[in-house]
Amino acid sequence: MTRFLSSLSWSALCPHRWWSAWRSSKGEPARSETDPTGSPCPETSVCPGSVVELTLEAPLAASGVVRAALGFVFVYFTIAAAHLLMVAVNTLDERFSALRYQSDGVEARWLGDAPLAEEIDALRRRGGAVAAARTSQPLRMLPVSPFLVGAAAGLILSGFALLLISRRVRSDALQTIMGVFAGLSIWTGGVEYGLVIASRSLGIAKSVAPYDGRIVGCFGEYVLLKHTWGILVVVCAYLLFLESNRCPVFVWFRRRLPLMRGAVACGRVENYAPRVAFEYVTITWTFYVLLLWAYDPLVFGVRGMLTHALFFGSFGVTGWLVVKLCRQRGHGPALRYAIGVGIVAWTPVEIAAKWRLFEQPWCLLQPTTALAFFGGTALSTGLVVREVRRSRRKPQMATALRALALAAEA
After folding, report:
1. pLDDT interval class at 388 (50, 70, 90)
2. CA distance 34 to 41
3. More confident of the two residues 269 and 48
4. What is the pLDDT of residues 284-298, one digit of tens each?
5. Are residues 348 and 249 in the same domain?
6. Percent of the chain with pLDDT strictly greater than 70
7. For 376-386, what is each residue's pLDDT tens digit?
8. pLDDT tens profile 308-337
9. Which of 162, 217, 239, 399 lies deepest, with the highest CB count within 10 Å?
10. Does residue 283 sit in the same domain as residue 341?
11. Residue 358: partners with Cβ closer than 8 Å, 6 or more residues away
12. In this predicted structure, what is the pLDDT of residue 315?
């Protein structure tokens, strides 16, 4: 029994080694590096009993699939909830800024894909109150409301607050979760609503919408966002030559161009939250710019070749990325890898909605959608946190068994 406990103390984290420990306790030769069938044990990449093994090894082979599923669902729900959050903020803005919006904003400069008259005719053909809405000559924007400015500032400050709080969190998985929410808040407040405020102030209109019996210009923020591609190129060039950058995409390019002067940077990262927030913002930014240029009728068009290539290519790439996601070791790496996987997998959803193949439920503020997407985000976050805590208890259990074995030997 003592020999069994001694072997069990270091084998608790690999199911194949329970068999070897029991064989050793019976006096039979143990297969230290194989499972009961004689095949190599996949969990023997480090020295048995080492601190590294007790910290990193997974208890079951299926744990990688569980981590991948939780991370993917978590990221997917946060993307959908971010859309619904903007709808909720816009609804509150219309309610609290009704007096402000009774006056017209600046004159709109039309930069839509179709002529303004065609856009207004298409809007009127919907019938109802839209058909009776008046069109001011010239077309006007809505003014910038104090509520909208406050909402943008609040989202930005909440994102920075999460980054400050993350300094006191030790788990890299929990730091990753906080980084995702921080990046979402900073992107929504600083970029999405920042460009909304800029488009209303500058009078840039890409589409028209009815409001309080009149037709106003809107969605100019997408024109501004599309033309941030130059800034995005500068950021990507910096990340490409930044040797401490560990992003797999940039590492792949550095190895093949070649731009590597030495080994990939390694070492402990004390706080992943700022990196994750930056990752979330830059990946979202990249795919936004890519899709906006693909939709441009002067380049490819909504149903053009590039849009179809992105739609079908995203499915194939998503399958390959999910396989790689399942191979990530630990909840933190899995969550960080799931950010890119989730955004890539969201691309065909965005394109299908642009083709009007379905109505986007995350753009409809209703009790059911709020429960589904806000509740789903909270539930998936809770499940990830629970799994992180359970995985942290397993090395503690293995350490306790080892202490028990040493006491039994004494």
Report:
1. confident
2. 5
3. 269
4. 999 999 999 999 998
5. yes
6. 77
7. 999 999 999 99
8. 999 999 988 999 999 999 999 888 999 999
9. 217
10. yes
11. 352
12. 87
Q: Do 400 and 289 share a domain, yes or no? A: no
Position 120 in a domain: yes
Residue 358 three-state SS:
coil
Cα 403 → chain centroid: 41
Residues 37 and 78 in one domain: no
**Does a structural domain hold residue 285?**
yes
Residues 121 and 241 in one domain: yes
CA distance 300 to 119: 20
One-letter amino acid at 296 equals D
Residue that is written with structure tokens 């995203």 in the block: 314
Question: How far is the CA of 96 from the CAs of 100, 129, 369, 394, in angstroms?
Answer: 9, 22, 22, 51
pLDDT on residue 45: 37
For residues 389 and 174, give the distance between their C-alpha atoms in angstroms, rounded to a whole number.
10
Q: What angle do CA 226, 228, 230 make, to 5 degrees?
A: 120
- Across residues 169-189, what is the average pLDDT? 95
Number of domains in the chain: 2
Amino acid at 4: F
Please, which residues bridge with residue 209 across strands?
216
Would you say residue 377 lies in a domain?
no
Cα separation, 323 vs 200, in Å, equals: 44
- 3 state SS for 180-201: HHHHHHHHHHHHHHHHHHHHHH
Higher pLDDT, 43 or 133: 133
Q: How far apart are the first and last CA of the chain?
A: 13
| Pairing of β 207-211 and β 214-218 | antiparallel
Query: Do 221 and 244 belong together in one domain?
Result: yes
In a shared domain, residues 20 and 116: no
Distances (CA, A) of 62 to 42, 66, 68, 254, 375: 13, 6, 10, 33, 27
Could you list the residue range(s) of the whole structural domain that residue 16 is in? 2-57+394-409
Give dist(CA 60, CA 70) in Å, integer. 16
Based on the fold, state whether residues 282 and 347 are members of the same structural domain: yes
40 pairs with which residues across the strands? 34
Structure tokens at 202: 């500058």
Tokens 């600046």 -> residue: 106
Tell me the residue length of the chain.
410
Tens digit of each residue's pLDDT (9 = 90 or more) over 103-128: 889 999 999 988 888 888 888 887 65
Of the candidates 215, 36, 213, the residue with the CA atom closest to the CA atom of residue 122: 215
Angle ∠(279,393,333) on CA atoms, nearest 5 = 20
How does pLDDT run across 51-107, given as a tens digit for each residue?
333 333 334 345 889 899 999 999 999 999 999 999 999 999 999 999 999 988 999
